[in-house]
Amino acid sequence: MSANTKTSRKVARYAVPVAVAGVAAATVAMVPAFANAGGPDLPKVTAQQLIEKIAASDVQELSGTAKISTDLGLPTIAGGLLGGSGVATGSAAPEDKVAQLASGTHTFRVAADGPDRQKLTFLDGKDEYSLIHNGADVWGYASKSNEVFHEKNAAGAPEDKKAADRLAASPQQLAEEVLKAAGTTTDVGVGDTAQVAGRDAYQLVLKPKQAGSTVGSIQIAVDAKNGVPLRVQLLSSQGGKPIVDAGFTKVDFAKPSADTFAFTPPKGAKVTEGSDERGRGEHGKEFKALESFPGLDALTGGANGKGEVKVLGEGWATVAQINTGAGKGLTDLEKSANDKNAPKEAKQFLDSLGDKVSGKFGEGRIFSTRLVNALITDDGKVYVGAVTKDQLVKTADSAK
Predict the structure, then answer these.
(1) Tell me: the pLDDT tens digits for 280-293?
(2) Which of 251, 307, 335, 363 lies at a C-alpha separation of 20 to 30 Å from 47?
(3) Are 16 and 229 in contact (CB under 8 A)?
């Protein structure tokens, strides 16, 4: 057996659990009802042993059903914009569907057969959206609009090889890297056991040591038998339901049939290749209007993207300071929003910003969600981080 073959098998061995965790964490949330009250009685494990268990999982095939729910506490206008054009038009572009997941609850079916074949089918009412990776091809299909998105997967790029090398590391190495990455600002431990999708699970818990973070903890439910992450929850430091809660409601670790990943564009479907300009839909027009609104470029790095970014603090209390370099700030936005020629979306956006705040930094407004807060100042600076409003103002005051 060649060294390349061995490496490929190692990559496949670790890629599926990592991919499942990534889908759960990156695409959004799951409902807390997945965990039954009074968890199962399981042998005790340490945090490092549990991380090793995740990394050592040899599961390459699975199928099941999951739910994702997200409660970011977004203002109405922001939630609508982040809903993406996929909501209004049934766009097949993957980024549109991902944007839609920024709020609400969604159900999907998932199937995986190694690192080269995965499928997600989102079920929103009678309409379906499928995202399929089958070898070199990535397909997106929206039944509502009968639109298809197609892109060739650029496998073998240097970045992919680097990622593959990391995935091929031993479970012990991976566990040590995760714990090291958590650093001195994070408590890593094992929480109560749970039952997720009818399977016994341990829970790996990451908690910020620092005060001021909007994150209370991140809890990852791990299958007690095979080490596959079954649910990821992002809990708020202010309590209440999870900000993000993503997990399986049903899961089967048998190999999916080959035709699960086969896809042929339906007759009459509009097919858009990845290199083509992607359709924006009605909400795309809103984004375009906002981009053309005088002053809004100050929130995105200034004219021609020349803004400077400075990182303040560390760990969970990290805040990005963006000096837009546009020479415009909140005052300019307010003036422009009241201009008779300004698009209505600009005024709606401005109205979604919070009340005025002041400090050593000057004056500004805080755009607030349950996870991320952003302070937009009158002199054109932006401070943003997963920290509370008070911590954000405190950081802005101490910035040089």
Answers:
(1) 333 333 333 333 33
(2) 251
(3) no
